[in-house]
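Table S2 (text version). Query chain:
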Amino acid sequence: MDRSILLIYTGGTIGMKIDPQSQALAPFDFSHILEEVPELKKFGYKLDSYSFDPVIDSSDANIPFWQEIARIIEENYTRYDGFVVLHGTDTMSYTASMLSFMLENLGKPVIFTGSQLPIGMLRTDGKENLISSIEIAAAKDEEDRAMVPEVCVYFESQLYRGNRTTKYNAENFRAFRSANFPVLADVGIHIKFHQELIRYPKWGKEFKVHYNLDRNVAIVKVVPGMNTGLLTVLTKVEGLRGVILETFGSGNAPTSKEFIDAVKVLVDAGLIVVNVTQCHAGRVDMDAYATGVALKHIGVVSGEDSTIEAALTKLYFLMGKYSDNKDVKESMEKNIRGEISKL
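Corresponding structure-token output:
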């Protein structure tokens, strides 16, 4: 098959090898990927690689890092059929979510993957993750169009929509979950794509990358007996535009006047306040209980069934796109890239 794939190695466990002298883990040269994973030669694809120098620990993911990944994809977009981004697992869901918003009218696969064990170790999960990610990135339909023109995460035999994922387990090979949306493909003897779930662009529309992002967002986890002064002090943070409240259950929070008044202070100060549930699965319903109704009444925006990773990066994206907070609030409740399920 005449397919071309660009591997983008940003860092992470998958690209590490044990140095024979020091016995320490160190990144290997990805231009020699066919030597490390000779099975890739059987595809017959044109495989090129781009490595960050220096490589990035995923804990250091930030806006310039995301912009650089997007730039590499944009500059190489017409040259390759798909992209596989190798990334540390700790913040992979944040990066995949962010890229899903940055890349508009995406018509080619951008598959994020990594591993829990280095690719050079005997029991590594890295080889299967890499091999399957490349095959998925190269897959096309009968009309020679990408099977999955989305930003995805592939891990342990399952392909997820990137902005629906959360890192769930730090030790198990099945590191990720997508609690509120089914997988886009199951990988066994065959790759079974669930095409009814995959988002397809309006073919022919111009691919566009959004680089302007605004990181002025705070996340506050609501806990029993919390000091509501922690909320009101946020009005003093210079440049802050958005606050995400991680609430209980279906968007619930303390019913006390003290708490509601503290949130109202944020809203009245012009901040965008978004309600996202702490639960791994389920959605925010601010019409279900008294507290949710009260929050909705004072102007808190529902995060619907988005993950915290998607809610945060969506705010970064929307605040970079719009100077008017009203536009940001309206768009937060819209399904932009498949990140929420509108009932």
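Notes on Table S2: The radius of gyration is 21 Å. The chain has two domains: 4-209, 217-332.
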